[in-house]
Amino acid sequence: MGDKFLNLKNWKDKYLNLKISVKIIIYFSIIFLLSTVILNFTYKKINSIYTSEKMRQSSAEVLESAETNTNMIIDNVNNVSKMIISSDNVQNTLRKVDEQGKERTDYDNISNYLIQFTNFDSNISSIYILDEYGDKYYSENVVYKNFDLEKIKESDWYDELLENRGKYILKLNGGGFFKSDGENYVSLIRVINDINTGQKLGLLVINIDENAFNDLNLKLSQKYGTKLIIKNEKDELITKSDDSAEILNGIKDEDYSDSKISFSIENVDKKDYIISSIKVQDYDWKLTTIMQYSELSKQTSYTKLFLIYFTIINFILIVIGSIIISKFITSPLKKLSESMEDVKKGEFNEVNIKTYNDEVGELKNGYNIMISQINLLLDKIRRDETLKRQTELNLLMSQIKPHFLYNTLDTINSLALSGENKTIYQMIKSLGRFYRTSLNNGNDIITVEEEIKTAKSYLLIQSIRYRDMFEAQYDLDPECNSFKIIKLTLQPLVENAIYHGIRNKKEKGKIKISTYEEEERVVLTLEDNGSGMDESQINNIIENNTTGIGVRTTKERLRVFYGAEHEFIVESKKDVGTKIIIKIPKIEK
């Protein structure tokens, strides 16, 4: 056992140490052989089940069609018989007491009446009516059959007819009365009763030409390639094809106690046939179809032959293809491997090898795109770091702008001389809060609530300096307070609104700051009713061509920090006002 295990392990190691090209050929060959064996086994199983089921379905379909058509022929003739026996002309004539009561016109009237049916329905060969006195009324398309009432009363089916109390019975050639011309007929026979008293008035015989059933056989043979045999309750042939009866010789007859279809495959003269039968309950007939098995299996034989040829050709193509594929894979992979070793050394160089639009080509293209993206990312990181340092320097400079501090201190000095101590207190408190939040111990991130407080402090200071120049309004959503934002986002925009918007107008201005949530983002808006901007000025802001350091710096800081997740929207109309909308993602940590 141990030796076998070691031997198997050696074979495995030998395979794993082979070149990739050889591995591919061996692997695909083994997979192909296994799949072929499984496919062949599965095909045989499925084909056997499919063929058997297909045979049953075809046989059932043929039998149902034959049964339907046979019933249709019988039902049509039965309907004719009902019309005849209920006819006033027939009833009145047959009620006459004896032959002396009848007139020649009675015979002519009934015969003419019967001729309508034989002319109308080609399946009806002849119609006979016999009254209780042996008189006959008839219409026929063949030579007249001479038979009398006494012989009929002696037949073996006469008692059965009387017991049926007016229901029809079916007999081959009228039980033997209509065989003289060599043709077969199916005779529908029934008693004619008085519709008023129920008294027996006579007999009705309608002969159905065997060609009606032969035509049915021909139609089925043309459509399904099937032979049809119809037998009555005495196992007498109603109709058959040329050789169908011979095929049934020697085959055991089944017991048809119900209407279920009997199905079997029989071998006759070294040929397999599908024998299907069903019993027609209404008149105890048996319908049998015979279908040669080769007709159904021919198609599957073609499929099997095609499968063999396909397997052989496929095996050859797989071997050749695996050799070619392995060649196109191993060479580019070796080049890629060498390039990856250079990446480990920090050398991000694209690989230059000839490939095609296959997986190896996609791998090479993807690798080169990755290297290119890495180089672009490194360049972007260097640029962003430089820009970030410059932006932070500009921000720091804006935070400690001497003229803002000097102007604020001058205002405080003037207020002190005027004795406005409360206003001085508010201004100093706002100034301290402004610089405390702006510097924030060197941290760039504060809450939206703190950012709003910074803007409020700045607005309060400026509103004291520029008395009655503007009023500040706020529409703030408390749900936004806890979300994070980079500091001094609003202050440069507020400053820009005052100096470039409100101050240029003569009337009192308004500045409104709003916050609200929009799905997964926080929205901050700044509105003023200042001098506004035209389309070119708006485009300059969007394209960062504006000379205003505050707006440009704010836009750039938002871009560096949030990237594509933020929006900076400017809406403005000349002499009406400006609205700036900032949308940033919700960040709580």
Could you describe the 3D structure shown?
- Helix 2 packs antiparallel against helix 8 (211-224) and helix 13 packs antiparallel against helix 14.
- The protein has 2 domains: 54-296, Beta-Lactamase (2-Layer Sandwich), CATH 3.30.450; 399-585, 2-Layer Sandwich (Heat Shock Protein 90), CATH 3.30.565.10.
- It starts with a helix and ends with a strand.
- The chain is an alpha+beta fold.
- The model has no long low-confidence stretch (mean pLDDT 78).
- The chain is built from 17 helices and 17 strands.
**Main pleated-sheet profile:** 5 strands, antiparallel
Taking all Cα atoms into account, the compactness measure Rg is 54 Å
Please give the domain count. Answer: 2
What is the 3D shape? elongated
DSSP summary, beta strand count: 17
Q: pLDDT under 50 segments (min length 5)?
A: none
CATH second-level architecture of the largest domain: 2-Layer Sandwich
The CATH superfamily of the largest domain is known as: PAS domain
Helix % is 40-55%
Short description:
The chain is of the alpha+beta class and 589 residues long.
Quickly list its features.
589 residues; Beta-Lactamase; Heat Shock Protein 90; elongated; single chain; 17 helices; 5-stranded antiparallel sheet; alpha+beta
Secondary structure layout:
Blueprint: H1 2-16, H2 20-85, H3 88-95, H4 104-120, E1 124-131, E2 136-140, H5 149-153, H6 158-163, E3 169-172, H7 173-176, E4 185-193, E5 200-209, H8 211-224, E6 227-231, E7 237-239, H9 244-248, E8 262-268, E9 271-280, E10 285-292, H10 293-344, H11 359-399, H12 402-418, H13 421-439, E11 445-447, H14 448-465, E12 470-475, E13 484-486, H15 491-502, E14 509-518, E15 521-528, H16 535-542, H17 549-562, E16 567-573, E17 577-585
Parallel strand pairs: 12-14
Antiparallel strand pairs: 1-2, 1-5, 3-4, 4-5, 6-7, 6-10, 8-9, 9-10, 11-13, 14-15, 15-17, 16-17
Helix pairs in contact: 2-8, 2-10, 11-17, 12-13, 13-14, 15-17
